[in-house]
């Protein structure tokens, strides 16, 4: 099977293999075991068939109840669906919150960026988010040899991006490489982002508003740094977050490395 980083499914933009990354001890992450993705609600039959060829056995959905109820995953019956929300409620699904945010985005620069920085810190600071990441690791630890899983959000960049950060960090991949994987979202979503920006301009939105929307739709190192700073502030370092925040033992982390490194 060819080693493709970005998996070319027709109805996704950001479906990626986490394999192939080198670890600090000279090993590499196994290909075709751990996938990260964006929205899986529109998958055509050929996309679903490809998921089976990838030996994906579990689909871990990190979205909120509101998001899942509006756009439920379309996956083959052979793949087990797991609802695992990082946030109990998606704030942008609240009419009042979204209306207020939209008002600010028309007039105030950096509102979109500030919103994302806050959301990333909340992925460390809220108990529901920590439980979701803990469950994700539990599924990784229970996966059978040669089987694969996929975890995803809506755009596959924030909840998904921080999940990938945690997984690759636990496996011993260096931070610079992990950040490159995180930022690869902007390449994967480039055509989508251009289309969205063009639609805003066609709708006569002002440049401040367009910049704020763009901040919501893109990956930014400042967002990831916000989460990293929050885990340092609360847990000392990444290992402290994994062990104290997510209750992973040293044996769990060793088992992860045995399962997913070569």
Question: What does it look like?
Answer:
By secondary structure, the protein is an alpha/beta fold. It has a single domain (16-260), classed as Protein-Tyrosine Phosphatase, Chain A (Alpha-Beta Complex). It has helices at residues 45-53, 65-70, 95-107, 111-125, 127-142, 159-171, 175-188, 190-202, 207-217, 221-235, 238-245, 250-260; strands at 16-17, 34-37, 56-61, 80-83, 148-152. It has a five-stranded mixed beta sheet, sandwiched between helices. α2 links the parallel β3 and β4. α4 crosses α5 (127-142). The protein is globular and about 55 Å long. The mean pLDDT is 94. It comes from Limosilactobacillus secaliphilus. It holds the Pfam family Y_phosphatase3.
Tags for this model:
five-stranded mixed sheet, 262 residues, alpha/beta, Protein-Tyrosine Phosphatase, Chain A
Task: Give a brief rundown of this model.
The chain is of the alpha/beta class. The protein is 55% helix and 8% strand. It has a single domain, classed as Protein tyrosine phosphatase superfamily (Protein-Tyrosine Phosphatase, Chain A, Alpha-Beta Complex), CATH 3.90.190.10.
């Amino acid at each position: 099977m060819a080693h493709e980083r970005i998996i070319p499914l027709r109805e996704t933009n950001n479906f990626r293999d986490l394999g192939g990354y080198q670890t600090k001890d000279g090993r590499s992450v196994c290909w075709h075991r751990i996938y990260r993705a964006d929205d899986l609600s529109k998958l055509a039959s050929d996309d679903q068939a490809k998921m089976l060829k990838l030996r994906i056995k579990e689909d871990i959905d990190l979205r909120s109840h509101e998001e899942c109820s509006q756009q439920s995953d379309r996956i083959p019956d052979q793949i087990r669906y797991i609802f695992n929300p990082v946030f109990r409620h998606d704030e942008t699904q609240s009419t009042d919150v979204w209306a207020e945010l939209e008002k600010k985005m028309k007039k105030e620069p950096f509102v979109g960026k500030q919103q994302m920085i806050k959301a990333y810190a909340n992925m460390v600071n809220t108990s529901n988010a920590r439980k979701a990441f803990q469950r994700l690791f539990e599924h990784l630890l229970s996966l059978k040899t040669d089987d694969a899983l996929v975890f995803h959000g809506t755009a596959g960049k924030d909840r998904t991006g921080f999940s990938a950060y945690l997984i690759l960090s636990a496996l011993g991949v260096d931070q610079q490489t992990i950040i490159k994987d995180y930022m690869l979202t902007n390449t994967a979503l480039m055509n989508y982002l251009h289309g969205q920006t063009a639609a805003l301009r066609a709708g006569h939105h002002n440049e401040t508003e367009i910049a704020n929307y763009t901040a919501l739709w893109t990956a930014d190192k400042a967002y990831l740094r916000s989460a990293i700073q929050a885990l340092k502030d609360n847990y000392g370092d990444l290992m402290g977050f994994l062990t104290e925040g997510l209750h992973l033992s040293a044996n769990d982390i060793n088992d992860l490395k045995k399962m997913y490194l070569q």
